[in-house]
Amino acid sequence: MEIEKVVMDLIINSGETRSFAYEALAKAKEGKYEDADALLEKANEMIDKTHKIQTSLLQKEAAGENLQVSLLFVHAQDHLMTSISEKNLISEIIELRKAINPLLGIKEN
User: Fold this and answer.
1) Closest CA to 98 of 59, 45, 49, 40
2) Which of 22, 27, 73, 91 is the most exposed place for a label (fewest CB within 10 A)?
3) What is the per-residue DSSP string for 8-50?
4) What fold, for 3-104?
5) pLDDT at position 1, please?
6) CA dist 18 → 36, 74, 104, 105, 108 (Å)
7) InterPro entries from the xrefs (predicted)?
């Protein structure tokens, strides 16, 4: 697999992870917890898929293959790290929303 394609897959999958996570947060704000949980599951699936891509690169390098590290590759790694952090924080915020929404008069839909 060409490194450019791998890098773009990392960026695209990381973006999809964040999109699913933020959509889940919006659903939780509305009290749609089942929808929010389903979207978080999709975000987790994207993270798993992206981790597999990253792991394949690490395995290649560990096997002695010389990988070209470019600014785009570093950018892709940054996207992955950021999407993981945001997804984890959003998961915690959704749990808070589940507790706070009833106090705000927002019923579970």
Assistant:
1) 40
2) 22
3) HHHHHHHHHHHHHHHHHHHHHHTT-HHHHHHHHHHHHHHHHHH
4) Methane Monooxygenase Hydroxylase; Chain G, domain 1 (1.20.58)
5) 57
6) 13, 18, 26, 28, 24
7) PTS_IIA_lac/cel (IPR003188)
Q: Which of 78, 62, 104 has the alpha carbon at shortest distance from 14? A: 78
Q: Which two tokens stand for residue 24?
A: 């889940």
Catalytic residue chosen out of the listed positions 26, 55, 75, 96: 75
Q: CA–CA separation, 77 vs 75, rounded Å?
A: 5
Residue 29 tokens read as 């704000």
Q: Does 75 qualify as catalytic in the annotation?
A: yes
pTM: 0.89
What are 65's two structure tokens?
Answer: 């293959």
Tell me the two tokens of residue 11. 């960026």
